[in-house]
From TrEMBL, chain A:
<dbReference type="GO" id="GO:0005524">
    <property type="term" value="F:ATP binding"/>
</dbReference>
<comment type="similarity">
    <text>Belongs to the GPN-loop GTPase family.</text>
</comment>
<dbReference type="Pfam" id="PF03029">
    <property type="entry name" value="ATP_bind_1"/>
</dbReference>
<protein>
    <submittedName>
        <fullName>ATP-binding protein</fullName>
    </submittedName>
</protein>
<keyword id="KW-0342">GTP-binding</keyword>
<dbReference type="InterPro" id="IPR052705">
    <property type="entry name" value="Gliding_Motility_GTPase"/>
</dbReference>
<keyword id="KW-0067">ATP-binding</keyword>
<dbReference type="InterPro" id="IPR004130">
    <property type="entry name" value="Gpn"/>
</dbReference>
<keyword id="KW-0547">Nucleotide-binding</keyword>
UniProtKB/TrEMBL annotation, chain B:
<dbReference type="InterPro" id="IPR007995">
    <property type="entry name" value="DUF742"/>
</dbReference>
<dbReference type="Pfam" id="PF05331">
    <property type="entry name" value="DUF742"/>
</dbReference>
<protein>
    <recommendedName>
        <fullName>DUF742 domain-containing protein</fullName>
    </recommendedName>
</protein>
């Protein structure tokens, strides 16, 4: 789950998660030396990066985790691990603030992770059409643009189904790689 | 550690004390790696550290590394070190997803799709 600040990522995850969305935190330093010797180097700064996630049990031995990207994209290296083994990504957009999702789209294109763009409607209202959003984001024709409602379990479920269907189509068309 | 309301929240244990100062686990655990505890004889629990015991209790149902970190309120890196050590000691089992060149295989994708449709 990616998208700009306040677009509804945590709401989206919470709509289908069987647990209240949880937050895991990673401690980052500005140096690559690791975090063992923080006490010895007082000039080093640390930042705590939080990541929200939810969980969906799909079968006795099958659990789907939904992870939200950290708000600031300079912390997205946390995602480099997640992209490996991930099914795909949902980029949640508010069509009034499309520029907020440019970093997410660039990141997933670079990482070659299949993604779809989900327009979050407010009170069932969508200010722009799928085609307007596709054009504004310069999306290739194969990337799906769908309408969703982050507060609705059914809408979120249907967005996730669209994503997995799209990933299966991509695999069939391009073989194993995106 | 801060809650959403910005208040300071005391973690269950002091993060870097329990890992002996190490911040890197012996091997890399993904955030979504699943962990389940191995059944121990009841007197074996007395040999566990408090944080190991917490993890053993949590992982009676399968949990991801990220969940353990969130529920115990310790940073992800600390949870990774603790879990990796416990796996080495045979206290927990790790379950990795079946990947094909870093991607979930088609069978797994089909199962996820039918699971979502059944919800």
């Amino acid at each position: 789950m990616a998208g700009g600040f306040g677009v509804g990522k945590t709401t989206f995850v919470g709509a289908v998660s069987e647990i209240l969305p949880l937050t895991t935190e990673a401690v980052m330093t500005d140096a690559s030396a690791g975090i063992d010797d923080l006490g010895l180097t007082p000039n080093k700064t640390t930042t705590t990066v939080a990541m929200d996630f939810g969980r969906l049990s799909l079968d006795q031995d099958l659990i789907l985790y939904l992870f939200g990207t950290p708000g600031q994209h300079r912390f997205w290296f946390m995602w480099d691990d997640l992209v490996r083994g991930a099914i795909g990504a949902v980029v949640l957009v508010d069509s009034r603030r499309l520029a907020d999702c440019f970093p997410a789209i660039d990141y997933f294109e670079e990482a070659q992770l299949p993604f779809l763009v989900a327009m979050n409607g407010w009170e069932g209202q969508f200010l722009h059409s799928e085609e307007e959003v596709r054009e504004a984001l310069s999306l290739p024709p194969h990337v799906p643009v769908v309408r969703t409602d982050a507060r609705s379990r059914d809408a979120v479920k249907s967005t996730l189904i669209s994503l997995v269907e799209y990933v299966l189509t991509v695999r069939a068309a391009y073989g194993r790689t995106y | 550690m801060r809650d959403r309301d910005g208040t300071e929240d005391e973690p269950l244990f002091r993060p870097y004390a329990v890992t002996g100062g190490r911040a890197e686990p012996r091997y890399h655990l993904a955030m979504e790696t699943l962990v389940s505890s191995v059944a121990l004889k009841s007197n074996d629990y007395s040999l566990l550290s408090p944080e190991q015991e917490s993890i053993m209790m949590l992982c009676r149902t399968v949990r991801s590394v990220a969940e353990i970190s969130a529920l115990l309120r310790v940073p992800l890196g600390v949870a990774r070190v603790l879990i990796a050590d416990m796996a080495d000691e045979g206290l927990v089992r790790l379950h990795m997803p079946q990947l094909n060149q870093g991607q979930p295989d088609l069978n797994l994708l089909e199962r996820v799709l039918s699971g979502l449709r059944r919800l």
